[in-house]
Specification:
Layout: H1 2-16, H2 22-28, H3 31-46, H4 55-64, H5 77-93, E1 101-105, E2 112-115, E3 121-124, E4 129-133, E5 142-152, E6 159-162, E7 166-170, E8 174-180, E9 183-190, E10 193-197, E11 202-205, E12 209-214, E13 217-222, E14 235-242, H6 243-254, E15 257-259, E16 268-274, H7 278-286, E17 291-297, E18 300-305
Parallel strand pairs: 5-6, 15-18
Antiparallel strand pairs: 1-4, 2-3, 3-5, 4-5, 5-8, 6-7, 7-10, 8-9, 9-12, 10-11, 12-13, 14-16, 17-18
Helix pairs in contact: 3-5, 4-5
């Protein structure tokens, strides 16, 4: 493997130096590497006018691009400027973009829709993230999720969602996954999904069925006849969930923080709050529980039990 990488680096260096053509390079490396090298060259061209203050970083790259005979292939200074100024980290960490990993994230109160190469759609809830390998997507339709997302999967090869709590596998369906720390909830809205938790338990979910795992305790249930999660239409809904997770959802949706040491966050909550109005959301959640909330700053609140 080390010799292969050395040869690839030599080919890249010669290509950047103009000693071999695009067509020649294409016969020497894989299609995936060739596409990655084209992206690298495009990035360097864009940055050719950057300030040449990163000469030291350029020398490190030159050392890496030595041929087997120990000679350094000369690179044009313009390309050196581009690499050293802003792309050296990408160059080293991603090893010439071999993995081409895509990362999509959402911020507080933000929802984002992503259409994948096969036509599948992923809608991310607030403070969530997905990552996947775009170049290898046709062979391996697998992505990693942190947080919550709703999936509308195009029919085709198996589609897999990996989380820190378990894996969900489907074949053309619609489902919702929420995975944060010790909370794991999967709901099927169309088709069929297979859920494998980290303790190797397997469950097959059909429409309107879900599995939830909180602090190691597993629950299977059947939902009302709904065709998508309520947060898609602007309302966060909970059923017998410890108040701690409802508070987390409020924090993610409205970018606020709660001091909750004076209340019992293990209380079970069933209800919903709107995602577009903080004051109404606070009243909806805490008034039925007889919990008082007080703003300490514009973005932080103190929770206390009413006396």
């Amino acid at each position: 493997m080390e010799n292969i990488n050395k040869h690839k680096e030599t080919f890249l260096a010669k290509w950047l130096a103009g000693e071999i053509t695009d067509e020649e390079l294409k016969t020497l490396v894989s299609d995936q590497d060739f596409r990655a090298y084209l992206k690298l060259r495009k990035a360097l061209d864009i940055n050719e006018k950057l300030d040449a203050s990163a000469e030291q970083s350029f020398h490190k790259i030159k050392e890496r691009l030595k041929t087997n005979k120990g000679k350094v292939i000369p690179l044009h200074l313009k390309w050196a400027i581009g690499i050293a100024a802003s792309f050296i980290a990408m160059f080293v960490v991603f090893n010439f973009f071999k993995s081409n990993q895509i990362l999509v994230e959402t911020h507080f109160g933000e929802h984002k829709s992503v259409v994948l190469k096969d036509g599948s759609e992923v809608i991310l809830n607030s403070k969530s993230a997905i990552s996947y390998n775009q170049d290898n997507w046709e062979n391996d339709r697998t992505l990693t999720l942190s947080g919550e997302a709703y999936f509308k999967v195009a029919k085709g090869k198996t589609f897999s969602v990996k989380t820190e709590n378990g894996t969900v596998e489907v074949l053309g369906t619609q489902f919702n996954v929420n995975s944060t720390e010790d909370f794991f909830d999967v709901t099927c809205f169309e088709g069929k999904v297979r859920v494998t938790t980290n303790d190797s338990q397997n469950h097959i979910l059909t429409p309107q069925k879900s599995i939830r795992k909180i602090n190691g305790n597993e629950t299977l249930k059947r939902l009302a006849n709904t065709n998508q999660p309520t947060w898609i239409s602007g309302e966060s809904t909970f059923e017998n969930v410890p108040l701690y997770y409802v508070i987390q959802a409020l924090e993610k949706e409205f970018q606020v923080q709660f001091e909750s040491e004076d209340i019992n966050t293990e209380l079970l909550y069933t209800g919903a709050f709107p995602n577009d109005n903080l004051e109404i959301a606070l009243q909806t959640v805490f008034n039925p529980l007889d919990i008082n909330y007080e703003f300490i700053t514009q973005s932080s609140l103190k929770l206390r039990n009413n006396k």
